[in-house]
Specification:
This is Capsule synthesis protein, CapA. InterPro entries: Capsule_synth_CapA, CW_Biosynth-Accessory, Metallo-depent_PP-like. Belongs to the CapA family. α6 links the parallel β10 and β11. It contains seven helices and 19 strands. By secondary structure, it is α/β, with parallel strands linked by helices. The radius of gyration is 19 Å and the shape is globular. Strands 2, 3, 6, 7, 14, 15, 16 and 17 form an eight-stranded mixed sheet that branches. The protein has a single domain, classed as Metallo-dependent phosphatases (Purple Acid Phosphatase, chain A, domain 2), CATH 3.60.21.10.
Length: 392
């Protein structure tokens, strides 16, 4: 895949504290071939009321679960508090029952970013509850998570995963919080501030050499922008220069361009500026005739895959599939419907929907494809999922 953006070599920045360290967590390995480690990156797993009121959370993922279960690690940004002791709540202070997250795990998600602006929506108690529930799921399913901790001094502890001999480091940070209470337990990096940015980048220089491959999750930027801010671009490129292999970002709730970078030493790195919403209810108020609305972009994303393999003393990364996905309203009994994730059809632009929505999704797919190909991608080719394909 060719680079999508020609960016200046600038910087980004953090607000942080803590020493470099790592912890080992058992890794559940799925199947991939030829010694390659297959990684899948998704966008935001949100929890609006139309999402958590579903009777069957597993139905959200039924179309994409086969892809997620076939890889080695699937990454998603969990943008809600997890509490079983209180009723669920939607925007602006999200909270869900643990069953909502467990469905995502059953679908195949293995790695969760917990650092985002909604981490502290329910205060410190909410942060601790989320960590308790994630620890329970980790014990049962072998999942991994990063971004929040139970003790302030443990912030910026890198999660260590080893798959097929590849030592993978994972760190999740957020640019800001919506709520102050509990924020001392979250990895915060206010990257527009030069001093904080430099301190964090120096930290990366120390910890990334401890791993064969390093994934940095960054929640930040400006919401609903379809092009990343320059300060964000600059920071991510600087993070790559400090040893990060994949910068995986979210917060804008819409898809932004991605970029392959070749470092001076010949290493290939990937920057995902925003993967948008993987699951949300942000298009709920749209009707079949609203296909030109800006809000429609919040219902579309991709599952971005890469393959990683150790070759002697170095690790190589090559592009995998880029599978376009969309949030679709599906009828549930007599109710208007619930949101599920569907893979766009590459050949026809159609997904399985009620007749009034068929034209909406045909038009949206044409716009979506023209928009992404316009970044510099080659035409869509190939496919693997039912009703899906790969941008190459």
């Amino acid at each position: 895949m060719i680079p999508l953006l020609l960016l200046g070599v600038l910087l980004f920045g953090p607000l942080w504290g803590g020493e470099e360290s790592s912890r080992s967590v058992p890794t559940s390995v799925h199947s991939s071939e030829g010694g390659w480690v297959l990684l899948t990156f998704a966008g935001d797993l949100m929890a609006h009321n139309v999402n958590y009121r579903m009777e069957d959370y597993d139905a959200i993922y039924e179309d994409v679960a086969p892809l997620l279960r076939r890889d080695d690690l699937s990454f998603v940004n969990l943008e809600t508090v997890v509490r079983g002791s209180a009723p669920p709540s939607s925007f602006p202070r999200f909270s869900v029952d643990p069953a909502y997250v467990e469905a995502a795990v059953r679908a195949g998600f293995d790695v969760f970013s917990l650092a985002n602006n909604h981490t502290c929506d329910q205060g410190e108690e909410g942060v601790r509850s989320t960590l308790k529930e994630m620890a329970r799921l980790s014990s049962r399913y072998g999942i991994h998570y990063n971004g929040a901790v139970t003790r302030r001094e443990d912030r910026f502890t890198v999660t260590r995963m080893e798959v097929k001999g590849v030592r993978i480091g994972f760190l999740a940070v957020s640019e800001f919080m919506n709520e102050i209470e509990g924020s001392g337990l979250v990895n915060l990096v206010y990257f527009p501030h030069e001093g904080r940015r430099r301190a964090f980048l120096d930290f990366l220089s120390r910890v990334t050499p401890q791993y064969d491959f390093f994934v940095l999750s960054v929640h930040g930027g400006e919401e609903y922008r379809r092009v990343p801010l320059e300060v964000k671009r600059a920071f991510f490129r600087e993070a790559v220069s400090r040893g990060v292999d994949v910068v995986w970002s979210h917060h804008p709730h819409v898809l932004q361009p991605w970029e392959w970078i070749r470092t001076p030493e010949g290493r290939r790195a990937l920057v995902l500026y925003s993967l948008g919403n993987f699951v949300s209810g942000q298009t709920w108020r749209l009707g079949p005739s609203d296909w030109e609305e800006e809000r429609a972009y919040t219902g579309e994303s991709v599952l971005f895959q890469v393959r990683v393999r150790k070759e002697g003393e170095r690790v190589v990364m090559v592009p995998g599939q880029v599978v376009p996905v969309v949030n679709v309203v599906r009828k549930e009994g007599e109710r208007r419907g619930v949101y599920v994730v569907r893979a766009f059809s590459v050949l026809t632009g159609r997904v399985e929907v009620d007749p009034p929505w068929e034209e909406y999704f045909r038009r949206r797919y044409r716009m979506f494809r023209a928009w992404v190909v316009g970044w510099g991608l080659d035409p869509v080719r190939g496919g693997s999922l039912p009703s899906s394909g790969a941008f190459r």
